Amino acid sequence: MAASLRIRLAALPLGKSRLAGSLEFSILDAAGESEACRAWVACDLDHLGSRIHVRGSVEGEAESHCHRCLEPYRRPITAMFELTLQRSAPESESDGDVEFVPDNVVEYDLGPRVQEAVLLEEPLQLVCAPDCGGLCPQCGANLNREACGCAVPVDPRWAPLATLRDRIDKPA
User: Fold this and answer.
1) Which of 58, 126, 162, 166 has the fewest CB neighbours in a 10 Å radius?
2) What is each CA distance from 42 to 57, 58, 72, 79, in whole angstroms?
3) What is the number of structural domains in the chain?
């Protein structure tokens, strides 16, 4: 897989065209851990002379670590992005989804835009399965693989309610 996905501006015909390719890159998850991503990208390009409108979709997979049980797992990634490339003088600055590209630039790399789109779709909490048991807070056992014999600690703030429950449960 390639490390970039480039639009060859000089060779791009006027009108509609497609660009597809694959990328490998790394991003940081919400916990600050690196995730290796493999992405397949398909773009619709609309060349309007001095402007090129790009609409892209991203599908692939990321190698993540579950935030509950800390086990590695693969998860699907999907994202969409859109931008407009505007040919201009070299001193123009980019503004949001309009990227000003100097006239002397021959290629535009979509790789950073793909990474940004994937990062914006990144969930805050990565979980290997909705019913992941996580780790035992006392012994550290992975509760997805084994049950531990640790007693569940009782929060002393709840003791008065437990006493009340015991009095209600006992017949008079």
Assistant:
1) 166
2) 6, 7, 28, 11
3) 1
Q: Which amino acid is at 133?
A: G
Query: What tokens appear for 157 in the block?
Result: 């703030």
Q: Which residue has the tokens 């835009």?
A: 113
pLDDT tens digits for range 138-168: 888 999 998 888 887 778 898 888 888 888 8
**CA-CA distance, 75 to 105, in Å (whole number)?**
36
User: Is there a domain that residue 74 lies in?
Assistant: yes
Residue type, 54: V
Q: Which residue has the tokens 């780790």?
A: 135
The amino acid occupying position 107 is E
pTM of the model: 0.76
In a domain, 41, yes or no: yes
Question: Domain containing 34: what range?
Answer: 6-120
> How far does Cα 68 stand from its chain's mean position?
18
Are 5 and 45 in contact, with CB atoms under 8 Å apart? Answer: no
20 pLDDT band, cuts 50/70/90, is very high
Residue 91 domain-assigned? yes
Residues near 103 by Cβ (< 8 Å), separated by ≥ 6?
87, 88, 89, 90
Cβ atoms of 133 and 144 closer than 8 Å: yes
Two structure tokens written together for 10: 């000089």
In a domain, 165, yes or no: no
